[in-house]
Every structure is written in structure tokens, then in C-alpha cells.
Amino acid sequence: ARYEAWYERHAGASKALAAEAEQYIPGGVQHNLALNEPWPLAVRAAEGAYLTDLDGNRYIDFLQAGGPTVLGSNYAPVREKVLELLASCGPVTGMLHEYEVKLARLIHDFMPAVQRFRMLGSGTEGVMAAVRAARAYTGKQHIVKIGGAYHGWSDQVVYGLRIPGTGSLEATGIPAGALERTHELAPGDGDALGALLDKLEQDGGTAAVIVEPVGPESGTHPAAPGYNAHVRELCDRHGALLVFDEVVTGFRLGMGGAQGYFGVTPDLTVFGKCVAGGYPAAGGVGGRQQVMDVFAGGLTAAGQRVFVGGTLSANPLSCAAGYHALAEMDRTGAPARAGAAGDRLRAGLEALIAARDLPYVTYNFGSIVHLHTSGVLHLTLDDPDFFAELGPRRDMLGHMSTAFAAEGVITLAGSRLYTSMADTDEVVDEALAAFARVFAQ
Ligand code: PLP
């Protein structure tokens, strides 16, 4: 009731726009991250660490668009380069542009395993291309993913994989047949992965194992130390390709991504978010030359070529934005600075939780900060029941996203906070004061 009253009093313009949106847009919102029901907020301006809504309320922005902006929102030096590009050739021509080459070369500099890079329109498309390339290159059919992992919304690797027909949000509309050759395993269970790969050998073998290297849903279930290296070994033993989905971690954990962070080299890497520097359209796949050559028209094991594409794929605007953002992130040390802000935020939240003995848990991978409520006191990540306790209660923090917003902090569904280079100590401390006010209530 308290926050409903806040919304009525302070967010009238957002409320009016949301009401109009319902007349023309299904459910009144185009973007899942904006769902924030029942009190959607509409943005007027974003810059650095802050957002301003239509009513003029100012917020610290830990949503950061869902992760693509390690430099902070609407970073001026990148924006200027994008405007120059728009003035010279507009956003898209369909012809080769030097920024395509510059971006691919820069990615290779940061991630040597990405010998060839194909720019696409989204992380979802990057995953689709990786799966198709792996099947074409290996001549095998089966794909293995980890439970709880999000790899976009294509049919074959959908979130909540084994639940078509249950009416769940992600599975509705997907025929069970689309998932016949996709297998899902519990997070962290290397033995089960070995056994599954053995079993699939009897049925033509596995084309690829796809993982989020920090753990499914980008670290909600953190990967155990050594897990990625173990998956690499198992893939090698079975002739399966290892695909790292670095849509979240790519360039955010460091310019070398999670593959640099863990020292494990995948065959293919999927990109999204940061690869276009916070601009649309952000996605792609890269990796070993022999595998990536399936996109060049070379013959695959099965003697086939792989088609991927898109009218706006690799448009000069996305490539220019990605190139200048990545170069600027490298020059400024943005991933490390954003990571230090994440460490400070997590430590501050930990102190607030301990001071009030709240049933929350927080942890971070650099600038990817998790905050979950378990409903159980003093639960830690090492507790064997951690995820069982967490699962049914995750929604609680979703409801808290509005409470955080009313106190001046925007989060991703109340449970994920992306920090950026713009989050100075002062910004983080201002956010912690807001969290303290919510926790006090
Ligand atoms: N993979 C991961 C790990 C993601 O977090 C996401 C999106 O959040 C995707 C893939 C899909 O990327 P996109 O939203 O660009 O389609």
C-alpha cells in the first residue's frame, strides 16, 4: 500500500503513459525487463549512473538496460562516434563497412579464441547460429544445456526446457518435438554430464554443450571452481563443441570475458549486449576458424553450408558503437572499475542484511551483483539446500523492485544489479542508503 500510494503521488505521467500503452501494446509493455508490474515507470532521460522518469524522479540505475553498458548509460564519447557514423552513411547500407572489420579484429585481440566473428542481431540469434554451426560442423545432432540457463528465446534452448504443455510462460507455444534433441542437466553436475555424453554416443553423438560460464542465468547458480575446465575436458573426450554463452559476461567480467577469467577456451562464443556497446542490434557468434568457416560456404562434415543472416545484421551503426565502446572500455579499465563498484555494493548489502538479520543472500561476479531472498536466515551459497530454498521464493524480490524504485534505485526484477564505471563510491553509498530505508521497513 505504501508503494502504491507513492506511485499514485509521484508517477502520474508514467501511469498515464502505461494506461495509453495498454490500448495499443499487448499488456502495455514491449520489453520484459520493463514489466515491473503493477507500477511501470517510463523513462525520459538516462546518463551515466542515473535515470530520470517522465515525472522528473531521479533514480540510480542498476538495471543498466539489462547489462550492455559497462561504461554507464548513454556514454558521450561513444554517442559522438555513433552520431558521426550516422552523419556519414546512416545506420545501414547492406554493404561491407570498415567498422565490421574493426570490431571483429578488436574482439580477436581481446579473445584470441575468437578467430572469426559473425555479427548478428541479438544474443538469441547468436545462440541459434552457434547451435546450427555446431551441428553442421560435427555432423552430430544432440545439444546439452544446463537447467536454469537462459540462452534467449529460440525454441531449441528455451528457458525451462522440459515444460512444454505446462502453461509456463517460456514454454507455451513450443512443440515438444522442437526439444527432442536438447538435453538439460542439473547445474554443476559434471558426473551427470559425462554419463549423458556417453549415452548420447549411442545415438549419433553430441554437437555442443552450451553453458553460461559463471553459472546458469548468469550466475544465479554460480559455477563451482573447476566446472568449466571439466566441461571442456568432457567435450574434448566426446568430440562435442564447447559453446560459452557470454552474452552477459562478454567484456563485462573483463575484456577477455569469462573465458579469460576462468582460463578455459571454448570452441564457440556467443555474444550479445556489450558487443554493440549498449546500442542495437547486439549479437553474434565467434570462435575457431575451422568451425566458423561453416558460415563462409566451406564444406562441413555433413557436406552442408550454414545459412544465417538478417537485414540489419552487422549494420555499421551497431559495429561502430561496439568498436568504440569496447576500445573505450579497454582504455578506461571500465570492467575492473565497474567490478570494484559491484564489490562495494555487495559488501554494503551484506552488511545491511547482517545488521538486520534478514533472510537475504547477496554475491557478485564483479559488476554482476545478485540479491536473493531465501526466506531462511543465514543461508549461504555453500548450503546444499541453497537453490531448493531460493527457487520458490524468488518472486518476493520481484515485488521489492518497486520498493527499491520508490526509494530511488532501479534494479533488474529486484534481484540483479548491474554496476557500471559510472558507479563511483558516492553513487554506491547513495544506493546503499536507499536499500537501508527499504530494509528498515
Ligand atoms: N544468453 C544470455 C546468457 C542472456 O542473458 C541473454 C539475454 O539476456 C541471451 C542469451 C539472449 O540475448 P538477447 O536478449 O540479445 O536475445
From TrEMBL:
Name of this chain's protein: Aminotransferase class III-fold pyridoxal phosphate-dependent enzyme
PROSITE patterns linked to this entry: AA_TRANSFER_CLASS_3
Organism this protein belongs to: Actinocrinis puniceicyclus
Cofactor: pyridoxal 5'-phosphate
Gene3D superfamilies in the cross-refs: Aspartate Aminotransferase, domain 1, Type I PLP-dependent aspartate aminotransferase-like (Major domain)
Keywords: Aminotransferase, Pyridoxal phosphate, Transferase
GO MF: pyridoxal phosphate binding; transaminase activity
Family classification: Belongs to the class-III pyridoxal-phosphate-dependent aminotransferase family.
